[in-house]
Design brief:
This protein is of the alpha+beta class. The chain is 14% helix and 34% strand. It has three helices and 13 strands, in the order αββββαβββββαββββ. The strands form three sheets. A six-stranded antiparallel β-sheet has the order 5-6-7-11-12-13. The chain has a five-stranded antiparallel β-sheet with strand order 2-3-4-1-10, covered by helices on one side. A hairpin with a 3-residue loop joins β2 and β3.
């Protein structure tokens, strides 16, 4: 009964010219697109009425989603364009392999849900239907997800596209979930996302194969009081030779 945070983040991106607007040329967008989202405000349930707003800011564009009748927003976001990329990939450069051969045949399946927007297999509404896998890498437990390796993805993950490019909602939602699983393997507990920082490094075409990675980095607190975990992650495009190019982090 709780909407996935990836949908909310994607709805803010939908209102940004050149990313969500169909009538705006995507070539006008200056990459990287730097996104900083904050959650954990007002509660939102499926069926609630919400208002989604974006406006110019000093850094670029600010966005917010408010639940009708709530005093504080459900999600806020700040989006900037073309600035120097912040060094948020300090972790992922340690464990992301250079190519597919390093993870092939080394993955264990992770359980999935029935109605989750990202991994639900029995949804009545459209969903991404991703599967998650555990890679016991030399750098600890890393969670992986894939897109574009099956023709069935055309009716799930790649359905969320605009003018031949993947809509950011699909990217943000899958990476959010991948990092959530990474945090689970570090803390032995699930949780909800509070703060998410993304760098979109370039547009991604619907004909490209994607691999997502996530790893838990730090845990603080106790589950009987308050526990928090930090996680890192990225998405890479796999080229024909099996090599990886990072496209979102």
């Amino acid at each position: 009964g709780i909407p996935h945070g990836g949908i909310g983040m994607g709805e803010i991106m939908e209102l940004i010219p050149g990313i969500g607007h169909a009538e705006t040329d995507q070539n006008d967008v200056q990459y990287p697109v730097i996104c900083r989202f904050r959650m954990g405000g007002s509660e939102a349930r499926v069926g609630d009425r919400m208002a989604i707003r974006t406006a110019p800011s000093d850094a670029g564009i600010s966005g917010r989603i408010s639940v009708e009748g709530a005093d504080i927003p459900y999600i806020t976001g700040d989006i900037a364009f073309g600035d120097e990329v912040a060094e948020i990939d300090e972790y992922t450069r340690d464990y992301v392999p250079s190519g597919y051969s390093q993870i092939k045949d080394k993955l264990d399946h992770i359980p999935h849900y029935l109605n989750c927007f990202v991994c639900g297999v029995d949804r009545k509404a459209l969903g991404l239907k991703r599967r998650f896998h555990l890679w016991k890498s030399p750098h600890g437990n890393v969670v992986c997800a894939f897109a574009g390796f099956s023709d069935e993805d055309n009716d799930t993950f790649y359905r969320f596209e605009r003018s031949g490019f993947i809509h950011p909602m699909a990217l943000l939602a899958v990476l959010d979930e991948t990092m959530g699983w990474g945090g689970f393997f570090a803390s032995a507990n699930g949780g909800v996302s509070v703060r998410l920082n993304y760098n979109l490094l370039r547009k991604i075409g619907i004909n490209e194969k994607l691999v997502f990675f996530g790893r838990g980095e730090k845990v603080m607190g106790r589950i009987d009081k308050r526990m928090m975990f930090w996680a890192s992650g990225c998405g890479v495009v796999m080229h024909d030779d099996g090599s990886f190019e990072k496209v979102i982090e």
